[in-house]
Write a structure and sequence with these properties.
The protein has 261 residues and is α/β, with parallel strands linked by helices. The chain contains eleven helices and five strands; from the N terminus they run βααββαβααβαααααα. It has a single domain, classed as 2-Layer Sandwich (Nucleotidyltransferase, domain 5), CATH 3.30.420. 51% of the residues lie in helices and 13% in strands. Strands 3-2-1-4-5 form a five-stranded mixed beta sheet, with helices on both faces. A hairpin with a 4-residue loop joins strand 2 and strand 3. Helix 1 crosses helix 2 and helix 3 crosses helix 4. It is globular, with a radius of gyration of 19 Å.
């Protein structure tokens, strides 16, 4: 089966915020501050509800039978609708095993809301067996199914108190982790027009997730030690071949701290 490890980055949906709070005359930064303030008043946190998030990057690591690919969907100027449609088109085309970190709690619900917003078609993703019997007991929507593996959920035993952040899990395995960027900094970077940096950060999060997944495959016996080493070497070779600075930085940090098996 094809494997697709993915990650998304989001910013406040200020267009929605203007409608919610009747502030059509304010700039994006001011609207976002109001949205955060209202959320803080209501819930005690300024982390916005998932329906108020807008996607600015979707990055993936795709492992198919023949190759490994690491990339972000679209380009820096692609509209959000295109990013969302491309993600679900990829599921339609490759029928992959999806892999995420907190994908059940964040990435996929946000993608669901944005797909709903734009009228995106995602028939394979929503299949639960009525049209394809293979999806009846193993589909993308079932929390305990394996077509989507939310590593944070699975490794914590589905217990909220047992969850770790991607950063913690990555560093536990000697992986690079966040490399100076975090989700909390994305909005400021977006306001500065640094979409390239956001996409690079998203790609390294997808890489961390995929490498944790490979260790999980070893843990559950889907890979033996030789197979695990071969798959991690393939990632290393892919990074070596790239001229992208964030991949060079990732590889250097990985080699400096890697947990050899």
């Amino acid at each position: 089966m094809n494997v697709l490890a993915f990650d998304i980055e989001t910013v406040p949906d200020v267009e929605l915020g203007r409608r919610l709070y009747n502030v059509a005359d304010l700039d994006d930064e001011s609207v976002a501050k109001i949205m955060s303030f209202k959320q803080k008043q209501a819930r005690g946190t300024d982390f916005l509800p998932l329906a108020q998030q807008r996607i600015v990057a979707v990055s993936v690591v795709l492992r198919n039978r023949d190759a490994l690919h690491i990339y972000s969907l679209g380009d820096e100027h692609s509209p959000e609708r295109e990013l969302v449609q491309r993600f679900f088109d990829g599921i339609e085309r490759f029928r992959p095993e999806l892999v995420s970190w907190n994908g059940c709690g964040f990435d996929l619900p946000v993608l669901n809301y944005r797909a709903l917003r734009y009228g995106v078609t995602a028939a394979r993703y929503w299949e639960t067996g009525d049209g394809d019997r293979d999806f009846r007991y193993n589909n993308y929507l079932g929390r305990y199914h394996w077509r989507h593996i939310d590593l944070m959920d699975v490794l914590s035993g589905y217990q909220h108190g047992g969850r770790a952040s991607l950063e913690q899990a990555a560093l536990l395995l000697g992986l690079p982790g966040k490399l100076g960027m975090s989700g909390g900094r994305v909005w400021d970077a977006y306001l500065r027009g640094e979409l390239g940096a956001i996409r690079a950060y998203c790609e390294t999060d997808a890489l961390n997730t995929y490498l944790i997944f490979l260790r999980f495959q070893l843990l559950r016996g889907a890979l033996d030690l030789d197979g695990y080493r071969a798959e991690t070497m393939l990632v290393e070779q892919k990074l070596e071949q790239s001229e992208a600075q964030h991949f060079k930085q990732f590889l250097e940090a990985w080699r400096a701290n890697r947990d050899e098996l």
